[in-house]
Amino acid sequence: MRIISGLYKSRKIVAPKNLPVRPTTDMAKESLFNIINNLFYFDEISVLDLFAGTGNISYEFASRGSLNITCVDQDYGCIKFINQTAEAFDMPISTIKSDVFKFLERSNLQTNIIFADPPYSFTEEQFSKIPELVFQNNLLLKNGVLIIEHSKHTNLSNLKHYSYSKSYGGCVFSFFEIA
Q: pLDDT tens for residues 76-105?
């Protein structure tokens, strides 16, 4: 994987092969960040990266100037890799090793953007629990957005707070906002 833009543009990051991850493709990531760039100033936002995996999305936010980034993942290897990479690049990324649903149930951390990249194999019920907990616990700041990455075979348009989706190959980003 590589960082698309910003301070660390074109830097390659090689994750260990034993991590249970599916990193967002460069094409999809670039398209996502073009959308976000039209909504926010990166140096003014806070970010919560759920199911963070390799930290791919968080590195992109950090490279573009975001200073308050929190990654949540339940896998120790993923958290360790994110910490090592963030330290090597001096990125403002903090990590929390936790089951994402348990984290969302007890968290009071409010951010501008919540990005969730759960396993594509999640059931509709598991996917629906993410926006349910985010909005129930008021985890987005004013004008904030929840973005859930999922496969083209999953449709989240019937969920509460759904706003729109963008597709890139087999990858879809669904956006949720406070109405």
A: 999 999 999 999 999 999 999 999 999 999
Tokens of 52: 């963070």
**Phi, psi angle pair for 9, to nearest 5°:** -50, 135
Residues 6 or more apart whose Cβ sits within 8 Å of residue 160: 131, 132, 135
Say which CATH topology domain 28-177 has: Rossmann fold (3.40.50)
Query: Read out DSSP for 103-133?
Result: HHHH----EEEEEE---TT--HHHHHHHHHH
Q: Where are the domains of the chain?
A: 28-177
Query: How distant, in Å, are the alpha carbons of 31, 63, 78, 97, 174 from that of 94?
Result: 25, 15, 13, 10, 25
The H-assigned helical ranges of 11-106 are: 26-37, 56-63, 76-89, 100-106
Whether the model clears a pTM of 0.90, i.e. scores above it, the answer is yes
- For the record, the structure tokens of 81 come out as 């890799």
